[in-house]
Amino acid sequence: MVEKIINDKLTSTKDFEDIYPFESNFMNINGHDLHYIDKGRGIPVIMVHGNPTWSFYYRHLIQILSQGFRAIALDHIGCGFSDKPNTKAYNYTLESRVKDLDTLINHLNINEKISLILHDWGGMIGLAWAVDHIDRIDKIIITNTSGFFLPKEKQFPFLLWIIKYIRIFAVPAVLGLNVFAKAALYLCSKKKLHPNVKKGLVKPYNSWKNRIATLKFVQDIPISEKDKSYAIVDHVDQHLKDLDESSLMFLWGAKDFVFDLAFLNEFRRRFPQAVTHVFHDAGHYLFEDKPKETAHLIEAFLNK
Question: What residues contact residue 237 under an 8 Å CB cut-off, 6+ apart?
Protein backbone atom coordinates (compact mmCIF):
# COMPACT_ATOMS: atom_id res chain seq x y z
CA MET A 1 0.00 0.00 0.00
CA VAL A 2 1.22 3.50 -0.87
CA GLU A 3 0.76 6.31 1.63
CA LYS A 4 1.96 9.89 1.47
CA ILE A 5 1.09 12.94 3.52
CA ILE A 6 0.74 16.00 1.30
CA ASN A 7 -0.22 19.38 2.75
CA ASP A 8 -1.11 17.65 6.04
CA LYS A 9 -3.56 15.28 4.33
CA LEU A 10 -2.94 11.56 3.93
CA THR A 11 -3.21 10.17 0.41
CA SER A 12 -3.37 6.40 0.34
CA THR A 13 -4.17 3.51 -2.00
CA LYS A 14 -5.95 1.72 0.86
CA ASP A 15 -9.36 1.71 -0.86
CA PHE A 16 -8.10 0.68 -4.30
CA GLU A 17 -4.76 -1.07 -3.79
CA ASP A 18 -6.01 -4.20 -5.54
CA ILE A 19 -6.45 -2.31 -8.82
CA TYR A 20 -3.37 -0.09 -8.42
CA PRO A 21 -0.80 -2.52 -6.98
CA PHE A 22 2.36 -0.79 -8.15
CA GLU A 23 5.62 0.09 -6.48
CA SER A 24 6.04 3.84 -6.25
CA ASN A 25 9.07 5.85 -7.30
CA PHE A 26 9.87 9.45 -6.52
CA MET A 27 12.32 11.96 -7.93
CA ASN A 28 12.89 15.49 -6.71
CA ILE A 29 12.46 18.38 -9.13
CA ASN A 30 13.37 21.78 -7.69
CA GLY A 31 12.36 20.71 -4.21
CA HIS A 32 9.15 18.91 -5.17
CA ASP A 33 8.65 15.13 -5.27
CA LEU A 34 7.36 13.81 -8.57
CA HIS A 35 5.77 10.36 -8.34
CA TYR A 36 5.99 7.80 -11.13
CA ILE A 37 5.49 4.12 -11.86
CA ASP A 38 8.32 2.26 -13.63
CA LYS A 39 7.40 -1.37 -14.21
CA GLY A 40 8.77 -4.01 -16.58
CA ARG A 41 11.71 -4.16 -18.94
CA GLY A 42 12.19 -3.45 -22.60
CA ILE A 43 11.41 -0.55 -24.91
CA PRO A 44 10.19 2.40 -22.77
CA VAL A 45 6.57 3.46 -23.05
CA ILE A 46 5.77 6.68 -21.18
CA MET A 47 2.14 7.48 -20.33
CA VAL A 48 1.27 11.14 -19.78
CA HIS A 49 -2.06 11.91 -18.12
CA GLY A 50 -4.25 14.99 -18.13
CA ASN A 51 -6.64 16.79 -15.79
CA PRO A 52 -8.02 15.66 -13.34
CA THR A 53 -6.56 12.17 -13.70
CA TRP A 54 -3.18 10.75 -12.66
CA SER A 55 -1.17 7.56 -13.28
CA PHE A 56 -4.12 5.58 -11.86
CA TYR A 57 -5.91 6.20 -15.18
CA TYR A 58 -3.26 4.06 -16.95
CA ARG A 59 -3.40 1.14 -14.49
CA HIS A 60 -4.74 -1.37 -17.05
CA LEU A 61 -2.06 -0.46 -19.58
CA ILE A 62 0.70 -0.62 -16.97
CA GLN A 63 -0.32 -4.16 -16.03
CA ILE A 64 -0.45 -5.37 -19.63
CA LEU A 65 2.40 -3.44 -21.25
CA SER A 66 4.86 -4.12 -18.43
CA GLN A 67 4.88 -7.77 -19.53
CA GLY A 68 6.82 -6.83 -22.66
CA PHE A 69 7.81 -3.20 -22.29
CA ARG A 70 9.13 -0.78 -19.70
CA ALA A 71 5.85 0.87 -18.68
CA ILE A 72 6.32 4.33 -17.14
CA ALA A 73 3.52 6.58 -15.91
CA LEU A 74 4.14 9.84 -14.08
CA ASP A 75 1.98 12.03 -11.87
CA HIS A 76 2.35 15.69 -12.79
CA ILE A 77 3.28 17.99 -9.92
CA GLY A 78 0.00 18.75 -8.15
CA CYS A 79 -1.52 15.43 -9.20
CA GLY A 80 -1.68 11.88 -7.87
CA PHE A 81 1.04 11.10 -5.33
CA SER A 82 3.29 13.94 -6.47
CA ASP A 83 3.73 16.97 -4.22
CA LYS A 84 1.13 19.73 -4.47
CA PRO A 85 2.97 23.00 -3.84
CA ASN A 86 1.27 26.38 -3.83
CA THR A 87 1.53 28.75 -6.78
CA LYS A 88 4.42 30.65 -5.22
CA ALA A 89 6.54 27.50 -5.06
CA TYR A 90 5.61 26.03 -8.45
CA ASN A 91 4.60 27.58 -11.75
CA TYR A 92 1.56 25.62 -12.90
CA THR A 93 2.01 26.14 -16.64
CA LEU A 94 2.53 24.04 -19.74
CA GLU A 95 6.18 25.08 -19.84
CA SER A 96 6.75 23.60 -16.37
CA ARG A 97 5.01 20.37 -17.33
CA VAL A 98 7.14 19.87 -20.43
CA LYS A 99 10.32 20.60 -18.45
CA ASP A 100 9.25 18.12 -15.76
CA LEU A 101 8.68 15.42 -18.38
CA ASP A 102 12.10 16.09 -19.87
CA THR A 103 13.71 15.99 -16.42
CA LEU A 104 12.07 12.63 -15.69
CA ILE A 105 13.20 11.15 -19.01
CA ASN A 106 16.77 12.26 -18.37
CA HIS A 107 16.59 10.91 -14.81
CA LEU A 108 15.54 7.48 -16.09
CA ASN A 109 18.66 7.22 -18.29
CA ILE A 110 16.68 6.10 -21.31
CA ASN A 111 18.89 5.42 -24.31
CA GLU A 112 16.34 3.72 -26.58
CA LYS A 113 13.71 5.49 -28.62
CA ILE A 114 10.61 6.30 -26.59
CA SER A 115 6.94 5.60 -27.23
CA LEU A 116 4.35 7.92 -25.71
CA ILE A 117 0.72 7.36 -24.74
CA LEU A 118 -1.08 10.68 -24.36
CA HIS A 119 -4.45 11.80 -23.02
CA ASP A 120 -6.11 15.18 -22.36
CA TRP A 121 -3.47 17.75 -21.20
CA GLY A 122 -0.93 14.94 -21.52
CA GLY A 123 -1.38 15.28 -25.27
CA MET A 124 -0.11 18.82 -25.47
CA ILE A 125 2.60 18.14 -22.88
CA GLY A 126 3.84 15.01 -24.63
CA LEU A 127 3.60 16.46 -28.13
CA ALA A 128 5.49 19.59 -27.03
CA TRP A 129 8.32 17.31 -25.91
CA ALA A 130 8.06 15.10 -28.99
CA VAL A 131 8.30 17.84 -31.64
CA ASP A 132 11.56 19.00 -30.04
CA HIS A 133 12.94 15.45 -29.76
CA ILE A 134 11.87 13.87 -33.04
CA ASP A 135 14.93 11.63 -33.18
CA ARG A 136 14.01 10.09 -29.79
CA ILE A 137 10.46 9.10 -30.72
CA ASP A 138 9.44 5.59 -31.69
CA LYS A 139 5.63 5.70 -31.62
CA ILE A 140 2.91 7.96 -30.21
CA ILE A 141 -0.60 6.86 -29.24
CA ILE A 142 -2.88 9.89 -29.07
CA THR A 143 -6.24 9.71 -27.28
CA ASN A 144 -8.87 12.43 -26.79
CA THR A 145 -6.59 15.42 -26.67
CA SER A 146 -5.23 18.23 -28.82
CA GLY A 147 -1.98 19.29 -30.41
CA PHE A 148 -3.25 22.60 -31.75
CA PHE A 149 -5.58 25.47 -30.92
CA LEU A 150 -9.36 25.03 -30.92
CA PRO A 151 -10.61 23.80 -34.31
CA LYS A 152 -12.48 26.55 -36.16
CA GLU A 153 -15.85 24.88 -35.69
CA LYS A 154 -15.38 24.53 -31.92
CA GLN A 155 -16.22 26.98 -29.15
CA PHE A 156 -14.49 26.99 -25.79
CA PRO A 157 -16.84 25.03 -23.44
CA PHE A 158 -18.84 27.36 -21.22
CA LEU A 159 -18.06 25.54 -17.96
CA LEU A 160 -14.32 25.68 -18.67
CA TRP A 161 -14.68 29.38 -19.58
CA ILE A 162 -16.25 30.08 -16.18
CA ILE A 163 -13.49 28.20 -14.35
CA LYS A 164 -10.78 29.93 -16.37
CA TYR A 165 -12.07 33.49 -16.09
CA ILE A 166 -14.57 33.79 -13.19
CA ARG A 167 -12.41 33.44 -10.10
CA ILE A 168 -15.27 34.09 -7.66
CA PHE A 169 -16.88 30.87 -8.95
CA ALA A 170 -13.81 28.80 -9.77
CA VAL A 171 -11.99 28.97 -6.45
CA PRO A 172 -14.82 27.79 -4.14
CA ALA A 173 -16.19 25.33 -6.72
CA VAL A 174 -12.95 23.65 -7.82
CA LEU A 175 -10.78 24.05 -4.72
CA GLY A 176 -13.53 23.97 -2.12
CA LEU A 177 -16.09 21.50 -3.50
CA ASN A 178 -13.86 19.58 -5.92
CA VAL A 179 -16.57 19.85 -8.58
CA PHE A 180 -14.13 19.43 -11.48
CA ALA A 181 -12.80 16.03 -10.43
CA LYS A 182 -16.14 14.80 -9.10
CA ALA A 183 -18.10 15.88 -12.16
CA ALA A 184 -15.60 14.08 -14.37
CA LEU A 185 -16.58 10.78 -12.72
CA TYR A 186 -20.01 11.07 -14.34
CA LEU A 187 -19.32 13.10 -17.48
CA CYS A 188 -16.14 11.48 -18.78
CA SER A 189 -17.07 7.80 -18.85
CA LYS A 190 -20.01 6.29 -20.71
CA LYS A 191 -20.11 3.22 -18.47
CA LYS A 192 -20.80 3.41 -14.75
CA LEU A 193 -17.54 3.45 -12.85
CA HIS A 194 -16.99 1.01 -9.97
CA PRO A 195 -16.93 2.74 -6.54
CA ASN A 196 -13.26 1.81 -6.05
CA VAL A 197 -12.38 3.35 -9.41
CA LYS A 198 -14.15 6.55 -8.41
CA LYS A 199 -12.20 6.58 -5.16
CA GLY A 200 -8.95 6.05 -7.01
CA LEU A 201 -9.56 8.86 -9.47
CA VAL A 202 -10.37 11.51 -6.84
CA LYS A 203 -8.45 10.35 -3.74
CA PRO A 204 -5.34 12.51 -4.37
CA TYR A 205 -7.53 15.62 -4.50
CA ASN A 206 -8.68 15.32 -0.90
CA SER A 207 -8.34 18.90 0.34
CA TRP A 208 -8.53 22.51 -0.79
CA LYS A 209 -4.73 22.78 -1.11
CA ASN A 210 -4.43 19.45 -2.89
CA ARG A 211 -6.80 20.49 -5.70
CA ILE A 212 -4.65 23.35 -6.95
CA ALA A 213 -3.58 21.58 -10.16
CA THR A 214 -7.16 20.82 -11.22
CA LEU A 215 -7.84 24.56 -11.20
CA LYS A 216 -4.54 25.68 -12.69
CA PHE A 217 -4.74 23.26 -15.63
CA VAL A 218 -7.99 24.92 -16.73
CA GLN A 219 -6.71 28.43 -16.13
CA ASP A 220 -3.65 27.61 -18.24
CA ILE A 221 -5.65 26.70 -21.36
CA PRO A 222 -4.37 29.18 -23.97
CA ILE A 223 -7.16 31.04 -25.74
CA SER A 224 -5.44 34.30 -26.64
CA GLU A 225 -1.87 35.46 -27.19
CA LYS A 226 -1.97 36.99 -23.70
CA ASP A 227 -2.06 33.53 -22.12
CA LYS A 228 1.28 32.22 -20.85
CA SER A 229 1.14 28.92 -22.72
CA TYR A 230 0.05 30.35 -26.07
CA ALA A 231 3.54 30.37 -27.57
CA ILE A 232 4.20 26.70 -26.74
CA VAL A 233 0.88 25.57 -28.21
CA ASP A 234 1.60 27.64 -31.31
CA HIS A 235 5.01 25.95 -31.56
CA VAL A 236 3.43 22.50 -31.31
CA ASP A 237 0.71 23.46 -33.79
CA GLN A 238 3.31 24.55 -36.34
CA HIS A 239 5.63 21.56 -35.88
CA LEU A 240 3.21 18.64 -35.67
CA LYS A 241 3.98 18.09 -39.36
CA ASP A 242 7.51 17.06 -38.37
CA LEU A 243 6.20 13.85 -36.79
CA ASP A 244 6.41 10.64 -38.78
CA GLU A 245 2.84 9.77 -39.74
CA SER A 246 3.55 6.04 -39.64
CA SER A 247 4.55 6.36 -35.97
CA LEU A 248 1.14 7.70 -34.91
CA MET A 249 -2.01 5.93 -33.78
CA PHE A 250 -5.23 7.67 -32.79
CA LEU A 251 -7.68 6.06 -30.36
CA TRP A 252 -10.81 8.13 -29.76
CA GLY A 253 -13.88 8.04 -27.55
CA ALA A 254 -16.52 9.63 -29.78
CA LYS A 255 -18.77 10.66 -26.86
CA ASP A 256 -16.19 13.03 -25.37
CA PHE A 257 -17.97 16.28 -24.50
CA VAL A 258 -14.79 18.37 -24.85
CA PHE A 259 -12.31 16.61 -27.13
CA ASP A 260 -14.97 15.40 -29.53
CA LEU A 261 -14.60 14.20 -33.11
CA ALA A 262 -13.78 17.72 -34.29
CA PHE A 263 -10.37 17.32 -32.66
CA LEU A 264 -9.84 13.89 -34.18
CA ASN A 265 -10.86 15.21 -37.58
CA GLU A 266 -8.23 17.95 -37.31
CA PHE A 267 -5.58 15.38 -36.45
CA ARG A 268 -6.71 13.22 -39.37
CA ARG A 269 -6.61 16.19 -41.73
CA ARG A 270 -2.94 16.55 -40.86
CA PHE A 271 -2.19 12.81 -40.73
CA PRO A 272 -4.67 11.14 -43.11
CA GLN A 273 -2.75 7.85 -43.31
CA ALA A 274 -2.24 7.35 -39.56
CA VAL A 275 -3.83 4.33 -37.88
CA THR A 276 -7.14 5.41 -36.33
CA HIS A 277 -9.74 3.65 -34.20
CA VAL A 278 -12.95 5.36 -33.10
CA PHE A 279 -15.09 3.99 -30.25
CA HIS A 280 -18.59 5.34 -30.74
CA ASP A 281 -19.81 4.16 -27.33
CA ALA A 282 -16.91 5.58 -25.29
CA GLY A 283 -16.25 8.97 -23.75
CA HIS A 284 -13.32 11.07 -22.57
CA TYR A 285 -12.10 8.39 -20.17
CA LEU A 286 -11.53 6.00 -23.04
CA PHE A 287 -9.34 3.62 -21.02
CA GLU A 288 -12.10 3.27 -18.44
CA ASP A 289 -14.74 2.56 -21.08
CA LYS A 290 -12.62 0.27 -23.29
CA PRO A 291 -9.66 -1.05 -21.24
CA LYS A 292 -9.22 -4.42 -22.96
CA GLU A 293 -9.89 -3.27 -26.50
CA THR A 294 -7.53 -0.31 -26.32
CA ALA A 295 -4.79 -2.30 -24.57
CA HIS A 296 -4.87 -4.91 -27.35
CA LEU A 297 -4.61 -2.27 -30.08
CA ILE A 298 -1.80 -0.42 -28.31
CA GLU A 299 0.20 -3.57 -27.66
CA ALA A 300 -0.12 -4.65 -31.30
CA PHE A 301 0.87 -1.19 -32.57
CA LEU A 302 3.90 -0.98 -30.30
CA ASN A 303 5.04 -4.41 -31.49
CA LYS A 304 4.85 -3.48 -35.19
Answer: 147, 148, 149
Considering only CA atoms, which of 257, 256, 245, 300 is closest in space to residue 278?
A: 256
CB atoms within 10 A of CB 218: 21
Closest of 143, 117, 126 to residue 284, by C-alpha: 143
- Round to the nearest angstrom and report the end-to-end CA distance of the chain: 36
Give the contacts of 153 (CB within 8 A, at least 6 positions apart): 262
- 11-52 confidence digits (pLDDT tens): 999 999 999 999 999 999 999 999 999 999 999 999 999 999
Tell me the C-alpha distance between 46 and 48, whole Å: 6
Residue type, 202: V
* Beta-ladder partners of 117: 47, 141
DSSP collapsed to 3 states, the chain: CCEEEECCEEEECCCCCCCCCCCCEEEEECCEEEEEEEECCCCEEEEECCCCCCHHHHHHHHHHHCCCCEEEEECCCCCCCCCCCCCCCCCCCHHHHHHHHHHHHHHCCCCCCEEEEEEEHHHHHHHHHHHCCHHHEEEEEEEEECCCCCCCCCCCCHHHHHHHHCHHHHHHHHHHCCHHHHHHHHHCCCCCCCHHHHHHHHCCCCCCHHHHHHHHHHHCCCCCCCCCCHHHHHHHHHHHHHCCHHHEEEEEECCCCCCCHHHHHHHHHHCCCCEEEEECCCCCCHHHHCHHHHHHHHHHHHCC
What pLDDT score was predicted for residue 1?
86
How many residues does the structure list for the chain?
A: 304
Regions of the chain where pLDDT drops below 70: none
pLDDT at site 43 = 95
pLDDT given at position 153 = 87
Beta bridge partners of residue 74, listed in sequence order: 36
d(CA 74, CA 38): 9
